[in-house]
Automatic annotation (TrEMBL):
Source species taxonomy: Bacteria, Bacillati, Actinomycetota, Actinomycetes, Pseudonocardiales
Protein name, per record: Histidine phosphatase family protein
InterPro entries in UniProt: His_Pase_superF_clade-1, His_PPase_superfam, PGM_Phosphatase
Pfam families assigned: His_Phos_1
Single GO MF annotation: phosphatase activity
GO CC annotation, single: cytoplasm
Amino acid sequence: MQLVLVRHALPERVDGAAGGVADPPLTPLGLEQAHRVVDAVGPEVEALYSSPMARARATAAPLAAALGVEPVLVDDLREYDADAAHYVPVHEMPVVDPAGWQRIVDGLLPEGVDVAEFTGRVAAALERIIADHPGRGTVVVVAHAGVVNCWLAHLLGIDRPLAFPLDYTGISRVLAVRDGRRLVRTVNEIAHVADLLTRTAGSD
């Protein structure tokens, strides 16, 4: 089967969540990016999964409407910063958080994140999705740059967990072969939103 991994679209910035956890919606530009995913993915989709975080669910919504399905929410696809009270879109980080930005440039998760635990959680969730779809169909997963990056790095044996620059609604494709092989076909396809992108690298 083919697993199509979609990073969420551009979210709002949150400088301090009233409830203690920042879970921002998409910006108007992000909503436009999300609608572009529909044609980029196409109609031949067997199932749609999403992180339960608002920015991922909103990105999945136009595709879900086009397919006439409800996305399956998978808690283990939450981003590593799911419990943070602040959310800064990564392209603003060089000014707002230079140290955090440097870690992203270096391909590293923030200090305090257990890379092995996070990667293990994400990999297990994606492998469960693969096991539930043993045929030759296409399954779409809408999640986060950290989620996608860590799994791709795991599959490719790359030490840096944030090895790839992933743009908003960038699409990566992995073929899951029945013999257990996982073949990374593409990383960060962006032709569908090339005119809408705020160029970013790493994760958020």
